[in-house]
Design a protein that fits this description.
about 90 residues; mainly alpha; Hypothetical protein yqbg; 4 helices; about 55% helix; globular
Length: about 90
């Protein structure tokens, strides 16, 4: 996860998780959050990820971790990502 836009330590701090038991699950959620973000942006994440995109990733991982029944993604995620979206018509 060294090349991921958000570290496992940042995710665990955001979610207030101690210990190592959830590491694999959190890594899976981060991969899903990154893919969802890139799909929404219509672009790969840059090497230097802007803070709003990092915040959106943290919120997505948190959402996936806490809401496992398919609830709607919070609109704030899209509000954070919208300025970076690459729209091609």
């Amino acid at each position: 996860m060294a090349d991921w836009p958000v570290s496992l330590a940042e995710i665990k701090l955001f979610l207030r998780i101690d210990g190592e038991e959830e590491n694999s699950l959190l890594a899976t959620f981060l991969a899903a959050a990154q893919e969802h973000t890139e799909n929404y942006l219509n672009a790969s994440l840059p090497e230097e990820v802007p803070t709003p995109i990092k915040q959106a990733l943290l919120l997505l991982v948190s959402h996936f971790y806490e809401q496992r029944s398919g609830e709607v993604i919070p609109p704030v995620v899209y509000a954070l990502l919208a300025p970076y979206r690459n729209i091609n018509w």
